[in-house]
Amino acid sequence: MVRTYPPIANVDTSAQAAVLDAPDSTYSLLYFDTQGICNPIREMLALSGAQWKQLFPQDWENEDRADKESTPFEVMPVLYVHSKDGKETVVVAECKVIEQYLARKHGFLGKNSYEHTLVNSFVSSTGGLWDEMLLGTMSVPVSAEIKQEIIAGFIAKRIPNWIRIHEQHLAANGRNGHYVGAQVKENEKITPSWENLDDYK
Q: pLDDT at residue 44 above 90?
C-alpha cells in the first residue's frame, strides 16, 4: 500500500497549510544521489536559505517495495515539510508540484500575476524541449544508431533554436542575466544543462 494522504472531506486542513506556509519550516528531500530532475528543487532550497537535508532511498528496487510504498505515488522526488518544532510533517509529491510550491513560497515566481505568468511561460518552453527530447529518444523503440541520429539532430537544430529564442527574451529584459525582472526566478532553475545530454544516449 502506498503512503496515502489523510482524508480531507469535512476536515480542517489549516494546520497542514500552516506548516507549508510557515517561513521557518524545514525540509527533507528524498531523491537519488544524482542531479536528475531534482536539481532545480535543490537549487531553490539552497538559494532560499532554508534549512533542509537530503534523504536517499535505501533500496529503491527492492522486491519488498518498502521504499516506493513510503511515497504517495511510488516515485521521487518527495519533499517532507516539517514544522519548526518538528511535530508536524506535510508530504509534497511530484516534481513540478514541489517546484511550484517552493517557487511560490520563496519568491521565485515574481511580484505579481503578470510576472508569475511570464515565469511559467518560460518554464513551459523549457519543459517542452526536454519532453520532446525524452519522447524522441526513450519512449519509441528504435535502434541505438537511430537514437543517436535523433539526439544529433536535436542538438544540431532544436537546441540552437531554443537558445536563439531565449537569448532574445533575455536581451529584451535588459541583458541583466534574468528572464523576468532583476532577480532569480523558477524558470532559471529549470533551464537545462545541455552538457548532461550524454545521460540519455
A: yes
